[in-house]
Structures are given as C-alpha cells and as structure tokens.
Amino acid sequence: MVKPTALKSKRISLPPVPSLESYRAIRQTAIASIDHPGNAKISSDERQNAVLQFDGRLNDETVLAHVAPWVHENNEVDILGRWRGNLFMSRLIEHFDGHIDISNIRWGRCGSDSIKGTVATPAGKIIVELSSYPSFRGCLDALLWTGLAKMEWVRTGRHGSSPNAHMVDLLGCQRRIRLMRVGAKYDLRIGLTTEEGEEVDNSRAHGLTQAKAKVIQEVGQLPKSQTQYLERFSKINCLCADMIGARSCESEGGYFLDDGSRGAILTQLDKLRRVILQASANFDRNARKDAIADIARRHERAG
After folding, report:
1. Which of 22, 178, 229, 279 could share a disulfide with 189, CB 3.0–4.6 Å?
2. Looking at residue 206, what DSSP letter applies?
3. Which of 87, 198, 186, 200 is CA-nearest to residue 146?
4. Is 254 left (phi over 0), alpha (psi -120 to 50) or beta?
5. What is the DSSP string of 34-91?
6. Does residue 100 contact residue 121 with C-beta atoms inside 8 Å?
7. Which residues of 92-116 are buried (b: 16+ CB within 10 A; e: fewer)?
8. Interatomic CA distance for residues 146 and 166, integer angstroms
9. Which residues have CB under 8 Å from 132's CB, separation 6+?
10. Would the CA dihedral through 31, 33, 35, 36 be positive or negative?
C-alpha cells in the first residue's frame, strides 16, 4: 500500500499585489484620458467618412432631427397662461367677487412652475405665490379681510409660530390649509384639489426637457472618427488585459499560479495587446443612424 505523501508547494517570488483601489484608479485614469468627441482631432478623410447619408449628406444632428423630431421641438410651458386659466384661479376670482381683481395682478415667474404677485387690501398687501401649494403671506388682518383665513385657525402664545393645519371647506370644496406665523406676518398655505393640481402639473414637461438633454449628450458622445473609435477601443481593452495580468500575479488564501501558467498567460496577453493596437475599423452609415435612433427611443419612453 502506497503511503500518501505531503504535497510540496513551490515558492516563487511574487510581485507586489495591486489593491482594488489601484485597479479603480487605473481604470478611471484610462477612461479620463479618452478624448471627448468635442476634442477629437479628425482628419479631412475621417470627417468625410463620419458624415452620415440618407437622401443626401447629413450629420448627427440632422439624423437626430429626422429620427426623433421631438428632441428639437419647443415644448416650453406657458406657466402664466396655465395659472390664469386654472380652476383654482377661477375659484379665487369667484371668492373675491370683485373686491380684489386678482386676474389682473402683474404676475411674474417664480421658479420653473410658479408665479408670484402682490394683492392690495385695505389692511395691507399680500404676496401671493401660486405653486403646487399656493401661499398667501401678509399681516393677519389682511388675510382675515380676504376671507381666506379665519381667526380660529390662529395659534397664540408660545405655539404661535408653529404651523396649524386643518381640513376646511374653502373655495367651494374640502381642502387642506396651513397657517403659520413668520415674524410679524402670517403665511397661509392652501392645498390644491386633485383636479386643480392636474391642471398645473409640470412634471411631464420637466421629464421631457431632461430626456432631450440626455439624448443630445449621448449622441454627442458617439465616436466621430475611425481614429477616435480605435483609440477608445484600444485603451479600454488594453486596460482589461493589464488587469488580467495583474490578477495572474496575485495569490489568494495561499494559492497562486505556477510559473509556467502565469508566464503563458502574460505571453498571450502581450500578443493580445499587439493585436488590439494594430486593429482597424469599418464604418456603417445605417448602423450609425440606428444607434442614434435607439438612444432617442430609450429616452423618449423615459421622458
């Protein structure tokens, strides 16, 4: 019977093991070194090849306008017009019954989807901001004069500056209000009903604006020449080869590659780098057009 023998490990001299942070730093450095499209140096021949054609000679922007016209459409929202014709505004006008001509206030834009104006009352001015949670700010007497606020909603004493919220019947329907003292003034917030809120909801417009910006950014990041494409390709893939080479020199839990295996891997990686650096590339106009269309479709759904 053959007695088992202990395995003999072969000691080799290993190079320092790069840390995970080192790998990340190498990768970020390689990616950062890749020229952005706007900085790419393009020869006249490459510029000729980079121009896309269908029914004539066109560039990326023209292709984008053809496959996704919504990207260049003007979808700016008329915030002033939207609020002037809103159900909430109609109910305010009806509430004031001519005592305050709120429809003819000089309104101004306040942020992306709000408007602000000043209302004059016999008891003082009120600053009105119409947003997703309309605000009326002024002295207490002025707010009480409008009939929008009631004395029983006011907190006094040490709790006077704390917000006081109620569900009340106001402007023809049940809604949440909040009254809060701010210094010598009071801030009355009046919640919109679901129907009123839907009329001034600007989230769709915001989403569309962001989608347009992302489409233009991603199309702009497409390689603009054969040289730029190959440069990106070689840097990223050579980086991958470097990481495999570094990994082959690591040990883990006492295990490591033997000299022959590690040497074979490093030799093949060196050959792979040479092939990568000597690679050539072709250009397909239809594939370019499809890539631009895919970018637009992806963000159109998101917007």
Report:
1. 178
2. H
3. 186
4. left
5. SPPGGG----HHHHHHHSEESSSEE-HHHHHHHH-GGGGS-----HHHHHHTSHHHHH
6. yes
7. beebbeeebebeebebeeeeebbbb
8. 18
9. 113, 192, 197, 200
10. positive
- CA 273, CA 210: separation in Å to the nearest integer? 40
List C-alpha distances in Å: 286 to 21, 43, 232.
41, 22, 21
pLDDT per residue rounded down to tens, the chain (303 residues): 444 444 343 343 434 444 445 545 554 554 455 444 444 444 444 444 444 333 344 488 888 888 888 888 766 556 777 777 788 888 888 888 877 777 677 888 877 678 888 988 899 999 999 888 899 999 999 999 999 998 888 876 555 455 678 899 999 899 999 998 888 899 999 999 988 888 777 666 667 778 888 999 999 999 988 899 999 999 999 999 999 999 999 999 999 999 999 999 999 999 999 999 999 999 888 899 999 999 999 988 765
- The 3-state DSSP class for residue 115 equals strand
Strand pairing class (255-256; 251-252): antiparallel
Cβ contact 153:165 at 8 Å: no
